[in-house]
Write a structure and sequence with these properties.
The protein is 41% helix and 15% strand. The protein is α+β, with helices and mostly antiparallel strands. It has one domain. It starts with 8 loop residues before the first strand and ends in a 21-residue tail after the last helix. Pfam families: DUF4238.
């Protein structure tokens, strides 16, 4: 058992973002699919959306079983939350360098922190670690010291599945913090598009980071809904920003919501049920592949 105060409800879409979709009752509509043939809808608090119990748990880790949640994802979210407030207040031009870094890191985390994407990233890390271990074999005897096992096979047998999972989890912050990618994203031209009152809301789901197949391709861009009425949009070329912002508002909403709903694996959120038919017809129709696509999958958690 973990320490009594350890959080176990790990939000891959944080509550500070989901709250923008709540009404006067402080709830939002949650569409999910508990079984493949059935979509359920329920009005719930943000705390009941976008989480998985012990998603980031690291049993037996020397830093504690909840270190990834407490030291990494909560820290990312705590720095991003005030930036989101400024973005929704129309203050994108007033962001400090530190705030831009915090927001970029938060957006980067969204491609690795949902259950499906996380397990893919960890599986890639485990595969990489196994490869490193395999590459030690030819020179093991020559490089071992007196404290090491006498043979490579004995050394390898001591590396457990839990050890490899811990190693992959330790690599996760570095994957998200990648300085080369981060520096590129921070310096992209960026705008926030606000919708007129006569068009439907943007929806939210577990996959809200809209991305082209390569941001440096023609018309490459990344976008993210930051409220039911606002879209954060970045692109290497100002022309792309102009073209997207000049789309008819109804067309923009439909295209964004189509990505959001068709990409959903776990839930779709909305302020109301006005778009229920749209959601039911498209939920999970086109889930996007992970950024990292491993051949190996992480071991299933022990029961």
């Amino acid at each position: 058992m973990g320490a009594p105060n350890d959080p176990t409800k790990h939000h891959y879409i944080p509550e500070f973002l989901l709250r923008y979709w709540t009404g006067d009752d402080h709830r939002l509509e949650r569409f999910d699919r508990p079984i493949p043939s059935k979509i359920m809808v329920r009005r719930v608090f943000p705390s009941e959306v976008g989480f998985e119990k012990d998603l980031y748990a690291s049993p037996g880790h020397r830093l504690g079983g909840q270190w990834l949640e407490l030291s990494v994802f909560q820290a990312i979210d705590n720095h991003a939350a005030p930036v989101l407030e400024k973005l929704n207040a129309g203050e994108i031009g007033d962001l400090s360098d530190q705030e831009r870094v915090a927001w970029t890191l938060f957006m980067r985390s969204l491609t690795h922190r949902t259950p499906h994407y996380l397990r893919s990233t960890l599986a890639s890390g485990i595969a990489h670690y196994r490869q490193i271990l395999d590459e030690l074999r030819p020179d093991y005897l020559a490089e071992r010291d007196d404290r090491d096992p006498a043979s490579y096979d004995e050394f390898r047998s001591r590396v457990t599945d839990q050890d490899m999972l811990h190693q992959a989890q330790r690599m996760l912050p570095d994957v998200m913090l990648n300085p080369r990618i981060g520096a590129f994203l921070i310096n992209l031209p960026t705008i926030v598009i606000e919708l007129p009152q006569d068009v439907p809301d943007f929806l939210i789901s577990d996959d809200i980071l809209i991305r082209t197949n390569g941001i440096q391709t023609p018309n490459g861009h990344i976008a993210m809904v930051i409220s039911p009425r606002r879209l954060y949009l970045s692109a290497p070329e100002e022309r792309t920003l102009r073209e997207i912002s000049n789309l008819p508002a109804k067309t923009l909403v439909r295209q964004v919501n189509q990505w959001t709903v068709e990409s959903a694996r776990y839930f779709v959120g909305a302020r109301d049920r006005a778009q229920e038919r749209f959601i039911r017809n498209r939920f999970g129709a086109d889930p996007k592949p992970p950024v990292l696509r491993p051949e190996l999958m992480t071991p299933e958690p022990a029961a």
